[in-house]
Amino acid sequence: MEIFRKIYRILEPVVRKIQQGIAFVLLGLLYIFGFGFAWLLSWAFKREMVRRDLSGRKSYWEEARGYGPDPEKSLRQS
């Protein structure tokens, strides 16, 4: 049994490095293909999202409409 413990102590750091390398590669591939696939889907179904003109704005943020405070609803909900 002592030999198995020695082998385990020797192989443990190697296995951890291999796991880290595999995780790094898989996350990189997920990033590249995941965002690429999302871009293709948005290009296919919502083309205005891909080619949207900002018209001098610095972001794509759009203000919400129709969510103003309504005192009557507030009274009914409380």
Fold and architecture overview:
It contains three helices and no strands. The protein has 78 residues and is mainly alpha-helical.
Task: Output the keywords.
single chain; mainly alpha; 78 residues
- End-to-end distance: 69 Å
Count of distinct strands: 0
| Structural class by helix and strand composition | mainly alpha
Helix content: over 70%
Beta-strand content estimate? under 5%
Gross geometry:
elongated
Number of helical regions: 3
- Element-level helix/strand string: HHH
- Rg calc: 27 Å
Poorly predicted ranges (pLDDT <50, ≥5 residues)? none
If you average the pLDDT, what whole number results? 81
> Major beta sheet, specifics?
none
In brief:
This protein has 78 residues and is mainly alpha-helical. The protein has helices at 2-45, 47-50, 71-77. It is 71% helix and 0% strand.
List the helices and strands and how they pair.
Layout: H1 2-45, H2 47-50, H3 71-77
